[in-house]
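Protocol step 6 of 9: fold each sequence in the batch and record its structure tokens directly after the sequence line. For illustration, a two-sequence batch is reproduced in full.

Sequence one:
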Amino acid sequence: MVLCDYGCGQEAKYPFDNGKWCCEKHWKLCPINRENYSKLMKEKWKNPKYKERLSKAMKEAQNRPEVKEKLSKRSKKLWENKEYRKSRVEEKIYTIRQIQEKYPFFSQKEEMRYNPDREIQVHCKYSGCKHSKEKGGWFTPTPEQFRARRDALDHDDGNDGCYFYCSEGCKQSCCLFCFRSDPNTLKEFEKYRKDADSRTNITLKKFYYKIRNIELQGKEYGYSLDHKYSVYDGFINNVDPEIIAHWKNLECIPELENSKKSKKSSITLEELLNQINEVT
């Protein structure tokens, strides 16, 4: 019996051009080589510089147009398979009830439903799309889209971005997709924010003592003024700045909490309007 020349002690079955025999079709698959390679990689991963270089190389590779196109085609091809899509949705996205329990803020911002195949569906963010909320449409997002939107909303370092788009065309047509890099949209937002801030200052003078925790505002107690329905959401949803500046939309909360909240809203527009319309 011929033994493997790579030292695993097993019977050799495959001859190589270099004259050696191996227990597997490729020398890297030999148990002893796999074990040595595993030890080598574990040692490498202990080095932060190695991880940093590898991460940088992977990001650079993923940003190449040809790699992006290849990954996109592969993802679309897989997603066209109904069985694959269903298994991925069930495995990675869970059920609507589980999502609502685990990610309450996401569930507050994004409306969801099941289609006849029990796939979770959402609205396309581009208002001109037939799948948008404005037109009563729905579409099935990929698990990657779902996770990106969820993380943007529920993680402390999220930026309230990564909106749902049913196609590349909708993404490019929606001004919110390029919000940070679009100077025209950014300029409009700055105008809206200045208007909302100006109206908020007027509200503070008129209804100072009606605002919750206003006496704690300042460095002494570490509280700051907050718009419960945020200025950012007001701009995105084309809400009248007068509503954003209403005293029922204002409260003072701890600065740290306000910082984490960032552009997020702690109340829905419907809840705010109901509060404003209440007879007091």
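Sequence two, same batch, same settings:
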Amino acid sequence: MTHASLLQPAFQDSVHATQQVFRKALAAMSEPGLEHEVTGAPALDRLAPATYALCLSLFDADTPIWVSPSLDSPMLRANLAFHCGCPFVDAPENAAFALVDESMEALTAFNPGTDRDPDVSCTVLIQAKALEGGPATTWTGPGVSDSRAVHLPLPGTLWAQRSAHGFPKGLDFFITAGTRFVGLPRSTRVTHNMQEVV
């Protein structure tokens, strides 16, 4: 198969759609745990519509990408390179964005930023099967009025690995499922079974 034969359509109205999804991504980070839905975005190989929409809206030539082997494919690389212009890296620590699934590779390999420059940290897109049905967690912090109950079906290792870096260092997350996604910035505190895990 040639490179051209791997290419798939992205948004029909790419400028309007990417701006709309980008605004939703900002809203998801400013109001952690609230669900947002994308419309008009296709799936791409192993990527769900919400995951692909975030890629199309957040990735560009200045954002090196690391992709989990469980999601990686020639079709994914061809389309992200064509539509976003993003370079791919083999070393997780060099990634500005990472694409993983809920099997959760070692998150500690990604760049958590520094106390002086926390904004250079990696943002991780976790593709899950659902955004509900998991253990009860309570989120508090900036953008959350009082507290918010969230039930993400993600492995417990996520919370342990997320807490490995002291704030303001840390990773920001988007968790996607189907056409929906939520944001989890490093500033959000998460408690699980009445014990703080982040």
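Proceed to step 7 once all outputs are recorded. Observation for sequence two: The mean pLDDT is 91.
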